[in-house]
Amino acid sequence: MEKQDQILMKKQNKTYVLELIKNMAPISRMQISKNTKMSPTSITRIVGELQEQGFVKETKLVTSGVGRKATLLDVCGDVLFTIGVELDKAVLKIGIVNYVGGMIDLQTYVRNPLESYEETVQNINDKVKNIIEQNAIPVGKIIGLAVGLPGSIDYENGIVRVAEQLRWKDVHLVRDLSKLTSLNVVIDNELKMKIIAENTVGKAKDSKSSILVGIGSGIGSAILLNGEVHRGESNNAGEIGHTVIDPNGNVCSCGKFGCLCTYISEGAILADAKKMKDISSIDEVFVAFRDGESWALNILDRTATYIALAISNLACLYEPECIILSGNLIDKMPEMKQQIEEKCERYMWEPIKKNLHIVHSSLGSQGVVLGAAIQAQNSLFDIN
Ligand SMILES: [Zn+2]
């Protein structure tokens, strides 16, 4: 038993040192020793092992304060890779991400919304094999794959409980996809994947409490509390699309009336716009808005109001330091941010308002893929 404990502790120390180099590189052995409070001898041994395994490399010599030379260390980005997948009603995106969160390649495909579950799983497998081959990544360096998708996801058991957009119910995505790809597979709700990307490399980097709001074909949010994704009892925390804002309102696909998503999804905006003008796409609404057509100004003004109300409610519940706006609507219409902020100014409770920052995600359309790949690394990486 004692031997087991020692092995475990060695592994923990090694992981800790590697994480430190990853976060603080370039860094010297002396600095690592100071930060970890481990002896210089132990650090030299651990770093040696990490170099041997290919995780760490020496970069350059620097002169430290008293004229002594110190060699700096950095991690090797290409020591391992993960695959991130974003699946939506009409789009399939696949990306390869390296150990330090760098996107090596990102490929986007149109998905037929009528495609069956089996066809989609087969499609993901084919595209994953393609991207690995095209980038000449040795399969042994790929530690796993993760999929981010909209809906209620039982991420612990690898089951998609409900994904209305994909018309899936209780499908064993992890089991089926790992069988086909021979890779370890992780799945989660797309916004929960996205906030992991924001927390690792984006606008909420190292934040302990932030909320990501996604506005596009639906509306939802992901909540980061104490540095962890807040999941709730069955991983549905943050699904604000089905908060009821008018019990006598529009009928929702969930069967209730007046859900938020019936007011501020792309479909809802387009349906309202069609009452005013003969148009066929959400992009035409944005063009009309920029041309100053009053019906488009009114519809998007009302949309901004509903988004501001949702944000104000979230802020009152969780008091985050930052709210990140993301998704197709805000990516295509960045000027909406100012409108939303003005409305928040009006609706948000003063004590909460003064500390809150509202920002636009900088990850654009690759946020889910990147977050999924990072999550795959977080859950599947084992230093041995
Ligand atoms: Zn609903």
From TrEMBL:
Gene3D superfamilies reported for this sequence: 3.30.420.40, Winged helix-like DNA-binding domain superfamily/Winged helix DNA-binding domain
Coiled-coil boundaries: none
Domain of life the protein comes from: Bacteria
GO biological process, one term: D-xylose metabolic process
Keyword Isomerase attached: no
Presence of keyword Plastid: no
InterPro entries (alphabetical): ATPase_NBD, ROK, ROK_cs, WH-like_DNA-bd_sf, WH_DNA-bd_sf
UniProt KW keywords: Carbohydrate metabolism, Xylose metabolism
Family to which the UniProt record says this protein belongs: Belongs to the ROK (NagC/XylR) family.
Role description: Transcriptional repressor of xylose-utilizing enzymes.
Protein name, as recorded: ROK family protein
Taxonomic source organism: Psychrobacillus vulpis
